């Protein structure tokens, strides 16, 4: 397939290898792998997980839950504090899948109990140090109250405690990541000890890609929810989660101008394609992507002497050495590893595999595609139409 | 219409006022207004321009050009160095609209001459100080050569010199913006003087929102191409281009958690909604948006004591004073002015007007919608289907 515009390439072999490594690690450690599908948001990539035996998934929105429920997933955690304004869709979902919701504040519990028509699993989100959201791990009074309120409902089945160590993303040292992980596991196990008399089963769930990638042995939890590992990216490589060779997505962008006076190459490919996520370099400069070369069956590790250093809406600027500057011409396609694969995929809205297959991304489907309620006839027409056009 | 998920609101009255002010300024100065439609990317917003007499537009991709050509626009500049890999679509477009392409490097000229089936207008992009792309304004040898090569073709009609003063975006002082603008106008007029003997007509085109907003009198050019002014945003307000009251788009996001231990409110609304663009504050902190309150017919200026200070993929964190923290509850919708309206609109992919009308955005249309070539029957089916579902 001829590439003429910015395109997100997906190396299926690398992706399958990433999936299999994590599936195997979870199996070896006796853990349920509940991968976070917000990274790929693709029904087809989801199937690759299913083929490896994965049955439970994590998503970051109710809309994403509907999308994957429509593709046959029946055990779904919406890993964001529950949005009580979406009760209508939550009810529709809870009528057909095992739905897991996240509670952070006690006051949502009576709203859920009143509004739900079906039972759902609920997890208390615990803040073990990231400080984005969650009840602080030693704030027992708040946790006591929340659990009492949950226990008094008949719609909310308390499932356990979950945490997300987003602060591992700021680390570049494996020992620091291990320490963060251990603190979280200790906190969650203290809560397990405290409350295990009150509930028949309490599960513990964690799930950042750095911990799940760097640790070989994971004990003291029941479930892991990493997401980014399916593709990895330059941020995770910088953290130490993966090698360059494991990065499974790559942007392909046309060269549209060259500036010999300052060794800069202009790409058709900007912030609406890559997203604005950036890796700050030790010299204070910004890195928005690194250049690789295509081989017969994939791409190389990044080449030296040329980097994506700036993005505006549709333009990207590469800064090069004399030698690298001479290697690329207007009309060439250049290949760039992304800084943050989740946001790049969400911006690009579809994938092209190295075999030339187009894979869908939820963000590329029209808003109306998942609109609820939806007449069955329109649903069918739309699916036919999509397959006809693509 | 009940809002339950992150939604981009559009105040049509403010937007129309922004459009009319710029149309009137262009008319008063005897300039052609060729607004940059990359900010809104919406057929319906385009109609509001048409109603004010605008006939020529700017876009940032060939895809966007096709979208607006399909909606009846016939004079379109693709304001990015021409992507020679898209000649097939360029030819299709050039067969039905007056298409303006941008040349930066001489070597694209023979590629265009060979590949084009129809005449197009070409502009030389001149770098007058922004240093993103363009031929340096005093690099006469390069400009001489490029113009000679263009003059020798029969498909490329040299239209004039164009520049984009993107460096005004880094200013917060009207005098600095005036100085940048004047430098650019001087450079372009020097080129006009130098080459006016060789070409029957040479037009000069400029077009950043700060200059076009701040200057009342614009002389020495033929055309202005501002884009962001249709909505404005906090970045432009910071620069001095607009008042808060002129910002015509606003995010509506549900409150999903509250953290009284640190006066933080968690929104359902993250970087996939707002984009990651940020305003660095003088104290070193990051600003991702400011809170407004809804009134009977729109929204207020930003309130003090509460700001959007952090974004992850789907979460936003607001930091508040005690008083402001108490003002918002879980399940409320909060209203946030965006940092960069172009990227927020591109992320959100549609608009909801205050009157409850849904407006489309090109990014929200399926990739296949504009695919080329496209069977006419499928095109019609898809349009019917879209109107049926929405």
UniProtKB/TrEMBL annotation, chains A, B:
GO terms for biological process: D-serine catabolic process. Residues 248-355 form the D-serine dehydratase-like domain. Pfam families: Ala_racemase_N, D-ser_dehydrat. Keywords: Lyase. GO terms for molecular function: D-serine ammonia-lyase activity. Belongs to the DSD1 family. This is Alanine racemase. It comes from Pontibacter burrus.
